[in-house]
User: Fold this.
Amino acid sequence: MFWKLQSDAFVRKREQMVQSQLRARGIRDERVLKAMMRVPRHEFVGHESQAGAYEDHPLPISCNQTISQPYIVALMLEYLQISPGDMVLEIGTGTGYQAAVLGELAAQVYTIERYAALAGSASDILGRLGYENVTVISGDGNLGYPQAAPFDQIVVAAAAPNIPPALFAQLREGGRMIVPVGNEFTQELQLVRKKRGQGIAATLEGCRFVPLVPGTPPGEGSNSGG
Assistant:
């Protein structure tokens, strides 16, 4: 009975998040709204943060990283216009929340996390929740995942000083990539379309993400899971 009451409380909070933080602020893509209604965000944060899992702000996770604000997740995915048959690359798995939302929207998701501990945890959570179409890779996100390229969309959940060339090269002709561009003080979301092999970038709005750091931390491996 306690678990059912707890689950019901999280469902109500998730409904409120979708209505007051997303729909009320202009998110119109019904597939994105329904996906974010289905994904239990509280499963992707530590126990100490679960009470605030559906509030309108980022939350800290391990390795000095963050799980993004729900509105920013919805905004980025709405701009990507993901179709059910698409293959998507995500850079910056974190605990796997955005990867789960992507898993609701796309046919196949590959997500890369710099920290092996986070990658392992995300893979465990996603597997437990049944996201069999999401593959987690521990490695350098700047390099992308050429083994599965080209991708229909690429979403980068860390700020780069410019559009990473290896990621753009792995984008399918006509595909879209959304990426925060800037330094630790000033960043802006950019939507990049690939047309005739060239990038056409549009600036969306200001944002704040952790930096996209090249390489992997000392002692980190390159394990993968799904």
About this structure: The domain at 55-225 is CATH 3.40.50.150 (Rossmann fold). The helical segments are 2-22, 30-38, 70-80, 97-105, 116-128, 165-169. The chain has a mean pLDDT of 90.
